[in-house]
Structures are given as structure tokens and as C-alpha cells.
Amino acid sequence: MIELRHISQRFAGPSGWVDALHDINLSIPAGQIFGIIGRSGAGKSTLVRTINLLARPSAGEVVVDGKPLTALPAQQLREARREIGMVFQHFNLLNSRTVFENVALPLELAGMKRAEIEATVLPLLELVGLTALKDRYPARISGGQKQRVGIARALASRPKVLLSDEATSALDPETTRSILDLLKRINRELGLTIVLITHQMEVIKDVCDRVAVLDAGRVVEEGEVVDVFLKPRHAVTRALLGDVIAHELPSAVKARVAAQIEAGEGQLLRLAFAGGGVDRPILSETIRRYELDFNILHGQVDEIQGRAFGSLAVLADGEPRQLKAALHFLREQGVVVEELSHVQ
Ligand SMILES: Nc1ncnc2c1ncn2[C@@H]1O[C@H](COP(=O)(O)OP(=O)(O)OP(=O)(O)O)[C@@H](O)[C@H]1O
Ligand SMILES: [Mg+2]
């Protein structure tokens, strides 16, 4: 649905050029919720603004729904842009207009007639749960409700793609949850492709199908969310994952484990499992089969997109040959085994 080819973005900074994006290549499939995550300044907003050419990239090609946006003349570009809706962190509502009028604005600008506007806006307000508040002004609704207005407005021109730049960052956890649920529902019911920018791995875990990790203007990792959670490859991904899965051992545990490893009393492993692996008693079977001792130090069992997911740090002790065979067995069972030779 969205193809970004060799996208670079260069800005004139106070002390020379700033390369905000370097040779970004991404292919975002239709109908998915695609997450883009990265630390502050990584280039997330810059990247999402190139998708609708709100900012034209210094180099590269943007193709949305088969249309090469970067090559279109102004008029055709304006039309193509109507198929791309956008929601913002700070909602960007007009305070002098009611909820209804805010959602109607893009339609008025497009010259739509009053009756048609009503026929479009009212069902959208119903969809986002704001029918009762349609005549209120933004000053008198909550942050979560403002974002619902922002989403309804973005949907007014019936886009095929919705871009969301930190749409939940200004909201509390419960309101975040409800907005994410709404985005999921829109994705499912309207078949909209959603590109969701966030700095929170929790958001990626809850709603995204695929994720790209951006660091210093480059895509450092990309894949299905479950795969990235099971086998994060880049240090930045691991750091971002640290918020939601237990990568880091608590410091008291660390000290104790370091002494045991030093004394040759075990090996530190990180085990990650998805789907069936969580439900089957693989660990106890491994322990029995290979006569090992597993001391579970830290971990959790959780859910990603409805699939069970587990991550455990264990200190495994036993015959070196048996231990080796056990790791092989675990990998055969689909468990991702990481041998941590030093205590992190
Ligand atoms: N218009 C601009 N002119 C100059 N530099 C810019 C401009 N827009 C962005 N930058 C720079 O590009 C880099 C990426 O910025 P961007 O806003 O895309 O980051 P971000 O990942 O969205 O960060 P945040 O999580 O804080 O929103 C930063 O170094 C920023 O200072
Ligand atoms: Mg940003």
C-alpha cells in the first residue's frame, strides 16, 4: 500500500546540514497497522510527514496505493492526499468550531453540500462515540474526546491510509487504551491501513502487526511484532523493549547471579516463547529429560495481538553435555534461546 524508496531528508540547521533520514526503504502492506518506533529525535515525525508529502523528501520516492506521489503534478497530488488522513499528538482542533464543525471542515473545504456533509459526519461521530457531544466546543471536552474528534476528522474524506503521529502520547493509560481500541476497530471495520508512530513499545505490542525501529534517521530493524519481541537484534530495539519485557535483571539478582556464574555454577539464559510454547510444559520437560536445575530469575508471560508470549531469564545448571543438548531441544521446540555469557 505504501512504498518508501531510498527516502532521505536533509534540513539546513544552524551549524550546517542535518540529515534527519538516511536512505529509508519500507514497504507497508495494505490493511495492516504498521508501527514506527524510535527515541526522541530519531526522525519518526519527519518520516511520517514524507508519506503524505507534508514535507517533500530531499531524495527518494513515495508510492501510495500505486500512485507515485513524488512524481505527481500539484492538482493530482492534492487529490491523492485526500486518501491519506492524519491524526496528531495535540489534536489540532479549531477552538471556535464545535465537534461537528471540526469534523465537517475538510468536507466544507472540498466544497461538499450541507446535506451530504451531515450524512458523512453523523455516522463518523457515531463510530467514534461522540454523537452526544457533537455541539460542544473543544474547550469543553476531554483529551481522549478531542482525539476522537481528530480521528473522525481524519476519516471524513474517506481515506485509505491513516497516519497517526503519537496520537496517544498526551493521554493517560486508560484513555490511550480506548483510543488504541478505536484505531484497531477502524482498521478492522473500514479496512484502513494505519501507520502509527510512537515511542512506546507498549503501543506497538497492543495494536501493531509489523514494526520498524528508527534510530538516528535509519531503519535499524523491521519485522512482524511477535518476531521482533522474540528476537530483537538491535541495541535500540532491546532498550525500547526494556519497558515491556524483562530484559534487565533486578540489581540484587544480578549480584547473586554474577557470583554463581563466576563459580561455574550455571549459565544464564534468556528464553522467549510465543504461541503454543507458553502453554506446553516445555521447561519442566527439559529439566526432567536432561537432569538440569533451572532457577527462574525474572520474567513474564504476556500477550501480543492475542498470542501468548513469554520471556524468562533463567540460571541453568547441570552437566555441560546435557545442558548443550537441552538448549538444542528447546530450540527445536521453537523457544528462542539466548546464551548470556555475562550478566547484563
Ligand atoms: N524543519 C526542520 N528543520 C531542521 N531540522 C529538523 C526539522 N524537522 C526535524 N528536524 C530534525 O530532524 C531530526 C528528527 O526529528 P523528528 O521530529 O522527526 O524526530 P521524532 O523521532 O519525531 O522525535 P520526537 O519523538 O521527539 O517527536 C531532529 O534532529 C530534528 O531536530
Ligand atoms: Mg515526533
Summary tags:
six-stranded mixed sheet; elongated; Alpha-Beta Plaits; binds magnesium ion; binds adenosine-5'-triphosphate; single chain; cell inner membrane; 13 helices; alpha/beta; Rossmann fold; four-stranded antiparallel sheet; 344 residues; ATP binding; 2 domains
Sheet with most strands: 6 strands, mixed
Q: What's the architecture of the largest domain, going by CATH?
A: 3-Layer(aba) Sandwich
Query: For the largest beta sheet, what order do the strands appear in spatially?
Result: 6-7-8-3-9-10
Arithmetic mean pLDDT: 90
Nearest-angstrom radius of gyration? Answer: 24 Å
Structural class: alpha/beta
Determine the fraction of residues in helical runs and give it as a percent range. 25-40%
CATH topology of the largest domain, by name, is Rossmann fold
CATH superfamily heading of the largest domain:
P-loop containing nucleotide triphosphate hydrolases
How many domains? The number is 2
Number of distinct beta strands: 14
Order of helices and strands: EEEHEEHEHHHEHEHEEHHHEHHEEHE
Low-confidence parts lasting 5 or more residues at pLDDT below 50? none
Report the bound ligands by name, code or SMILES.
adenosine-5'-triphosphate, magnesium ion
Strand content: 25-35%
Distance between the termini: 40 Å
Number of helices: 13
Q: How would you sum up the global shape?
A: elongated
Q: CATH first level of the largest domain: which class?
A: Alpha Beta
Family: Belongs to the ABC transporter superfamily.
GO molecular function, one term: ATP hydrolysis activity
Keywords: Amino-acid transport, ATP-binding, Cell inner membrane, Cell membrane, Membrane, Nucleotide-binding, Translocase, Transport
Function: Part of the ABC transporter FtsEX involved in cellular division. Important for assembly or stability of the septal ring.
